[in-house]
Amino acid sequence: MPFSGERLKQARQRIGLSQSDLGQQLGVAYQQIGRWEQNHSLPSSDTLARMAQILGCTADWLLELVEQPEERLTEQDLSEEERRFILMYRYGQLPELIRRLVTEMAERDVHKDSVINGPHQADVPPEDVAPSR
């Protein structure tokens, strides 16, 4: 997930907490707060939930899923495909979820390449290729 260390820092500073203060409330060392803020590591989901409560924002905002600190992502904001992925994750179907994500990413890369570079020679039917002179 796209956790935002910058948003964590903004929220922490907005309510006047030092890294040490937040670390104490979360039960982690202040250095860990710094690693999260620098995007060198990610908090666990449990820690993220507690962090959002302490900071008075939503986890959705810290994950850059919404624009405002108090906003929440709703089911209506998700596509049907996103809902399917979430259900697969919830039901422990991680191998299938990973396979689908990798396949989708590969297909998007191929599509992106063809849009940027034009069709590859192999993508053009032989009758559409002009003879060279």
Topology diagram in text:
Layout lengths: L4 H10 L4 H8 L3 H8 L7 H11 L3 H4 L17 H11 L3 H24 L16
Helix pairs in contact: 2-3
Summary?
By secondary structure, the protein is an all-alpha fold.
Number of H/I helices: 7
* Tally of DSSP β-strands: 0
Instruction: Count up the domains.
Output: 2
In angstroms, what separates the terminal alpha carbons? 53 Å
The residue fraction in helices comes out at 55-70%
Computed over alpha carbons, the radius of gyration is 22 Å
Q: Which ranges are low-confidence, i.e. pLDDT below 50, for 5 or more consecutive residues?
A: 120-126, 128-133
The major β-sheet equals:
none
CATH superfamily of the largest domain: lambda repressor-like DNA-binding domains
Q: Give me the secondary-structure category.
A: mainly alpha
Per CATH, which architecture of the largest domain? Orthogonal Bundle
Strand content: under 5%
CATH topology of the largest domain: 434 Repressor (Amino-terminal Domain)
| H/E topology pattern | HHHHHHH
Shape assignment: elongated
Name the descriptors:
2 domains; 57% helix; mainly alpha; 133 residues; 434 Repressor (Amino-terminal Domain); disordered C terminus
